[in-house]
Amino acid sequence: MTAQLIDGNALSKQLRGEVTRRASALKARGITPGLAVILVGDNPASQIYVRNKVKACEDSGLHSVLEKYDAALSEDDLLGRIAALNRDPAIHGILVQLPLPGHIDAQKVIESISPDKDVDGFHVASAGALLVGRPGFWPCTPYGCMKMLESIGYDLKGRHAVVIGRSNIVGKPMALMLLQKNATVTVCHSATPDLSAITRQADVVVAAVGKRNVLTADMVKPGAVVIDVGMNRNDQGKLCGDVDFDGVRQVAGWITPVPGGVGPMTITMLLVNTLEAAERTAG
Ligand code: GUN
Fold it and tell me: Measured between alpha carbons, how far is 240 from 218 in angstroms, rounded to an integer?
């Protein structure tokens, strides 16, 4: 079997088209959805990520503000900027790019963002809302994975979904989203013995570890759906995921590529969350 590809670029294009249309409708009512992106320091990867986020806003007709600060910015000054953005009616979403310099308490900064503007979905109020199934912003990467499953018409009810990785940003919220769709969910992590015995039972595997070849062909049930959240470099410096793509695609039923899979979906769901935040203020 050769797996069918779930194309994150194509799905993103479609969803961003919807964002553009909904943003125009809001603008006609005098509201331009606005995202503030804060970058502290000069982490090269973060610089690329924030540039891509701001460009995606522009391409979809959203207003965006990029605030760049020196790595020496104090925690108090950062909290002051967030307080001002919380009050700013032109800003519907606030994103503080992580990681932050070591002298700043990232969790404290995230908790200072108004939950109504927490388009990253990292605030404890957003995490709590997801846990109990109340409305709130979902973290963009697992939200994007759910959209990819939806795009192939996959019914999760009664299926065994295995998540590899337990980060607050991907693994844990991913497990909750799958559970909300009535999957039976197993979360595996670095202390899980015999990972392959578990993944071989999975109808859906989400690999979110940040390490190459975490999932190989012998670990996958024929026909399973494989979602690869990883962003790594191989020995030739080429972008690759957590999944051994060439091997696993011979066994799986569906698979997301890297690049062109989950990556573009993450930014797309940030646009969706920002638009939604603006729509909520519009009533
Ligand atoms: N750093 C790496 N990924 C992310 C993300 O999705 N949001 C933020 N704010 N920082 C990140």
Answer: 19
Instruction: Decide: 148 and 206 in contact? Cβ < 8 Å.
Output: no
Whether 108 is catalytic:
no
Q: Which atom of ligand 1 is nearest to the CA of 96?
A: 9
Task: Look up the pTM and report it.
Answer: 0.97
Sign of the torsion formed by the C-alpha atoms of 175, 239, 11 and 273:
positive
Q: CA-to-CA distance for 60 and 115, rounded, in angstroms?
A: 23
Q: What is the residue type of 203? A: D
Instruction: Report CA(271)–ligand 1 centroid distance (Å).
Output: 14
Asked if residue 99 has a cis previous peptide bond (ω within 30° of 0), the answer is: yes
**Residues present in the chain in total:** 283
Known catalytic membership, residue 97: yes
Within the chain, where are the H helices? 8-28, 44-59, 75-87, 106-112, 124-132, 140-151, 171-180, 195-199, 245-248, 262-282
pLDDT tens per residue, range 62-112:
999 999 999 999 999 999 999 999 999 999 999 999 999 999 999 999 999
